[in-house]
């Protein structure tokens, strides 16, 4: 029942290969040339497919349940696998391959079915028997206990009202709706299901005894949302820290870990008591899992875990956590094949992004915050961009240094607990990826003496040093105390918002030619290894690498809490000057080559007026694109981020000129565009010209897969 994850991941088309369901048609024959197999799963690898309900009459059912597949289409897929030499495998096969006992067969596929639905026994199990195919069947034990016993435990109304909760959330409701289903019913994708909608334990035992079906836990009570912030947003229970409005506090780490651990153990106990076999696999609801929940699952005794979002087909040895491809839209076999094919040769995904100031949305009045958020959502949705770089730090004085943050943390004041809410609303209502835009060095600590002790320092001619008093007040990347502090901040960000898709590192991550004298301090250490610095006269490339390594340390903190079903990506701002003049690396400790090698995206500040060029802006942009394309994958990985405001003249750039710049960049070969700033309250830059410039439809030859 992936209603939450559909909005988080698949509502944006990240993994769907096929179109939405049209009128029903006859299932294609395996001998039909239109479905001939062109895809070969690499030897030693396997694909995992995630199915849900299987319906007799496909079309009417799929209209309200996009995750259902018709019995006819599923049988056609089984037929297709048989005809094209694709081989379903079991967890025993994967375990044997992992242990070197026997290799996987060619074109190995693991079939998995979620939620413990009755249709698995009535429609899927006979197909498994007919074809002698194994499958993994994931059961939400809390649901089975409820429909079998009619019992209601603490917070059960949330579990049974998940769809209604989500609908209320999307409407900006902040209260938790009560149960409308009976005590022995589950609200499942818009319809009530009682005992007849789920398997019985007798059926489970029968299927398990056949040797074809392995039972996995789908958790006991984590297939639901819980309140995750003061505003009442409901987010996946396996990842979110529960927010208590009465105390105004979040669930602490110990309580969170205990809750997840107890749930997994309880579910395993229920399955073992009813089947005699303890499950060895967890299939996470919504695919919601991270490094922390994975460690909890291992501690609870599970050997395998499965999420969603398999963008690269794994080998048995790459586990024990594996991704799955979500089958939705009642696809024909050729579309499922194409979905697997995308993992082998992922299509280019052209970027369109807007960098958004959360400072502009914030207000002391909650009603005004709500109005500003509505304006932002309307604007982003209408603009049809794919990504928002969302400010996670507060900078009310505009100096670029984080004086406070928009999420709970242990080091800086929290201006407002706002980032989680806005990020969640952008993902679920505007359907975009959200990157947290955060400084790497520029944090203004509350303790002035600590700030000065850790701050970047400038080499003086007499061999002494002084605190760098420049545009950004930056912490030194060579001080272990600063390394630990920034790691904690990034971890706190992802802990409070585990659904973010990535991070944009702010343009504060630079060191000038006469910086950083902190490398000469006795306490100084290289960020990557912690080893002492023996020669503190560092080259520009040394400092460039040090900043990359410092960032990697910080990002490790965020990755620990990031949802593994997302492809967590990292973008980093880069000054245009170092692209146009590579010798400028000495002035910034930045370089395009190392950035392209290390980051998923380079957010190049293609801002001619900010750069101070004397050339016409159009000529300057042409030169910038030409320089980028000299690098391997330069155009693929570079996001050209245009300025919409001229800070020197304090005026907005003419909208049509901005549009023309965008068109010019694309004609020259640029693939990825972004812009900053965006005044979503007053509507600047003007919508229509900006939309025309950002639209992928303007240049059909440059379109990528959605």
Oligomer: single chain
Instruction: Give a short account of the largest sheet.
Output: 8 strands, parallel, barrel
Counted by DSSP, the helix tally is: 26
Give the helix level as a range of percent.
25-40%
- From the alpha carbons, calculate the radius of gyration and give it in angstroms: 27 Å
Kindly state the number of beta strands. Answer: 31
User: How does the overall form come out from the CA principal axes?
Assistant: globular
Category by helix and strand content: alpha/beta
Write out key terms for the chains shown.
706 residues, alpha/beta, 8-stranded parallel barrel, 6-stranded parallel beta sheet, 26 helices, 16% strand, globular, disordered N terminus, disordered C terminus
Task: Explain what you see.
The protein is of the alpha/beta class and 706 residues long. It contains 26 helices and 31 strands. The strands form ten sheets. The chain has an eight-stranded parallel β-barrel, surrounded by four helices. Strand 12 and strand 13 (249-250) form a beta hairpin. Helix 23 (617-628) packs parallel to helix 25. The longest helix has 23 residues, at 253-275. It starts with a helix and ends in a 12-residue tail after the last helix. Residues 1-22 form the signal peptide. InterPro entries: Glyco_hydro/deAcase_b/a-brl, NODB_dom, PGA_deacetylase_PgaB, PGA_deacetylase_PgaB_C, Polysacch_Deacetylase. GO terms for molecular function: hydrolase activity, acting on carbon-nitrogen (but not peptide) bonds.
